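HUMAN:
Sorry, I am quite new to this. Are you able to go through these amino acid letters and fold codes? The numbers rather puzzle me.
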Amino acid sequence: MFYSSTKELVLALKGGLEISEDGRIDMVNEGVFRERLDDLVHNAVFNENEDIKAASKWIIREAALKLGLIPSSIQGFYRAKGRGEYSHLTVPAVNIRGLAYDVACALVRAAMKNDSASFIFELARSEMEYTHQPPSEYASVVMAAALREGYSGPIFIQGDHFQIRRKLDRRSEIATLKDLIRESIEAGFYNIDIDTSTLVDLERPTVREQQRDNFEIAGEIVAYIRTIEPKGITVSCGGEIGEIGGKNSTEEELRAYLDGLKEELAKRDEGLVGISKIAIQTGTTHGGVVLPDGTIAKVKLDFDTLTRLSNVAIQEYGLAGAVQHGASTLPAEAFSKFAEANTTEVHLATEYQNMIYESELFPKDLREKMYSHLHKECAKERKEGETDEQFIYKTRKKAWGPFKEQVWNIPKEAREEISRRLEETFDLLLKRLGAANTREAVNKEVKPIPVHKPIPESLREAI
């Protein structure tokens, strides 16, 4: 249901929690509160009244802190991995583009089933735009999902591919990215992957010069993050040395970037904490490659390069290791190889999107409306000779935003079954990545720090 006022919102939560004027949450009945979460998160996302939206998001966040669900940085765990205390364990970072609440619930249930705390919810800068999910909304949705399923402890929310767009004015792009980083950190994104690999210039004569713009701008952004992170929290930052889908990365590129970044940070402050992991290119492309008949080409991923570069990052630079992007469409049996290769993180999105779109439970008429929208609005993206199947597969990620509310309102039974099937996939994923039974290790290395926000004035007035 939609609330018509913040007063109605407060009354609807009576019996579950109480809110004091000074912004303190008193959990009266946890079970009753969880029963009302579905309505609360729906208002946080879709209510047209901005005051009600803001109040709903604030309540979700403060209730989460009250119940011990705390947005956190994975930095401590990654530092321990960089010291060699944990190995052959890969953390899945899942980008949720559509049906966000139900998909997040599925991942949390799978994590709880496996006693895992080493998993990340993430969203890229581009995804935030085309899925219409700003940082405060995405953080609210995944926290609400974790609360609904009874999860507690640190929860990791990450900005993925926070990217500098090469063809735009550089200083303007850097300013825009800094604004997004500030907004994201305020929302609880205490993990940020900086992607300045778009600035790599392979026309330059040496590898260091090719990587120079990459590590110089990354250094500026890491230094900026250190000035705005909450007290007591070290945001986990990632870097990247090669655009996904390009040529495979090399040890020389890895060292050139990491050495250059270290020098850049030292120029600003010898004590600045750098990055915790490094994304490299090993043969995948985001979402795989679709063939003319609509099937997905088999991905050839260079696990030797992944192993070698990950070990260099760990042994020589003290990082947690290498990050692999664009791997969700790999066959299930391939995922155990990431742990064997000592990969730190693997970023996953497209296969879960495919499972939703292609499910017989997804309303056919809605899917047709979404595809029709793409044919009209994304026509300029169609390449000569591209089949309908190739065009739709490539662009359908961009239909989630315009049809977000219709997707959220798919019949409950269908959403629950899609979520259950995704849970099975996430369950297998956690096991194959070696990410099961990690709660004890994560709790040992990560000490969550609650960051409270002032109560919105409209909510205070309604109490």
The chain has a mean pLDDT of 94. The two ends are 20 Å apart (CA to CA).
